[in-house]
Design brief:
nine-stranded mixed β-sheet; eight-stranded parallel β-sheet; 17 strands; binds pyridoxal-5'-phosphate; alpha/beta
């Protein structure tokens, strides 16, 4: 297990493929760009670790000014706290005594929060926190338009917040208000309209909470596609951006404000693959398929080779079509594939190979890979 794809100091040609590679210059610029946005706007940046699943990356984001990390799973929270992260918000509902006790156990070492959209969850989490002797931060998740988890905005949120405020072992902190579907809407105008509706839901809920005397110290939400909109509304104060650090083709395909593709962040995440068969002048086959990158959002793009496209994907093969004017691909050539969806791609690998100036600078273990319990 855990075959290591490279050694520090290796040239790119020496990296064993398929490998998950980070272009560290692009990655650092992405992290800094978001951090700078946080400083300028006054928004708290709490990056989502479901994207990177890696405490080393979390620590980089924290050194750039992030207030903490988000995650979806108790196992991810455990990996983050083990990796030295002091403030973790599970942006999800957690069901089951065992899981809640594991989460509560982390709260003696770090600030731990989680989301709620039902009374039963409140009772169970309160019990676990009391049993372990800790306090868990609690956010009420409201449905701001994506129709996934969350109570309706307004009175239902207030009722749940009141329950939490009365529950021993829980501290009511505010609202989880994330509109996942808005992130990849194709045009800026559609995203703007979706977040405007979400903002109304947040506004109405905040007013209801105020009238009930419930202090709402945080409204958390947003992603890479909409974070400027939530920030501009004045209703959110914390951004849960994840993909911005890596980008992927799903984000590269949405439109920017004023037209053109969304290019605020750079592609920094790649699957490095090797040509292992050249059956004809038109086709080449690489050693990376579905087990190296996810394809539910489309096949990967070939970095810096617009003349080459991925036309077929199976478990361990990627079939490339080479354009008529192209430099032919030869056996042993390397290509950098840009994943269509960064988060599930990362979850297929054990290591990030960080490269800079054509050399391997670092190896980061993806310690929360597969941590779905
Ligand atoms: C995925 C997710 C995010 C981050 O979204 P990106 O598009 O990757 O920036 C934020 N909050 C929640 C609840 C999420 O599930």
């Amino acid at each position: 297990m855990y075959l290591i794809p490279a050694q520090i100091g290796d040239a790119i040609d020496q990296i064993e493929t398929p490998a998950l590679v980070i272009d560290l210059d692009a990655f650092d610029r992405n992290v800094e760009r978001m951090a700078a946005f946080g400083r300028q706007s006054g928004m708290r940046i709490r990056p989502h670790a479901k994207t990177h699943k890696c405490p080393s990356i979390a620590r980089r984001q924290m050194s750039a000014g992030a207030v903490g990390q988000c995650c979806q799973k108790v196992g991810e929270a455990e990996a983050l706290v083990r990796g030295g992260i002091q403030d973790v918000l599970v942006t999800n509902e957690i069901i089951g005594t065992q899981k809640l006790r594991r989460l509560a156990s982390l709260a003696s070492e770090a600030a731990i929060g989680l989301c709620f959209d039902a009374r039963e969850q409140v009772e169970a989490a309160s019990q676990a926190a009391v049993d372990i002797g800790v306090t868990l931060d609690a956010l009420v998740e409201i449905d701001v338009g994506m129709q996934r988890c969350g109570v309706p905005p307004g009175p239902a949120a207030r009722e749940l917040a009141l329950r939490i405020a009365e529950a021993p072992g829980l501290a009511f902190r505010g609202l989880q208000a994330y509109h996942g579907e808005a992130q990849h809407l194709p045009t800026f105008e559609e995203r703007e309209a979706a977040i405007a509706r979400a903002a109304e839901a947040v506004r109405a809920t905040r007013e209801t909470l105020d009238r009930a005397g419930l202090a709402c110290s945080v409204v958390s939400g947003a992603g890479t596609g909409t974070f400027r909109l939530e920030s501009a509304s004045g209703l959110w104060d914390e951004l849960q951006v994840g993909s911005y650090a890596f980008m992927d083709t799903e984000y590269a395909r949405i439109g920017a404000q004023g037209g053109g593709p969304y290019a605020e962040f750079e592609h920094s995440l790649f699957v490095l693959a090797t040509v292992m068969s050249v059956p004809s002048a038109e086709f080449a086959v690489v050693d990376a398929g579905l087990k190296s990158y996810s394809c539910e959002k489309g096949v990967p793009w070939v970095h810096h080779r617009e003349d080459v496209s991925v036309v077929g994907v199976s478990d361990e093969h990627g079939k490339l079509r080479v354009g008529p004017l192209a430099n032919r691909l030869r056996l042993g050539d390397r290509v950098m594939l840009i994943p269509s969806h960064c988060d599930p791609t990362v979850n297929l690998h054990d290591w990030y190979v960080g490269i800079r100036n054509e050399k391997v600078e670092l190896l980061w273990p993806i310690s929360a890979r597969g941590a779905s319990i």
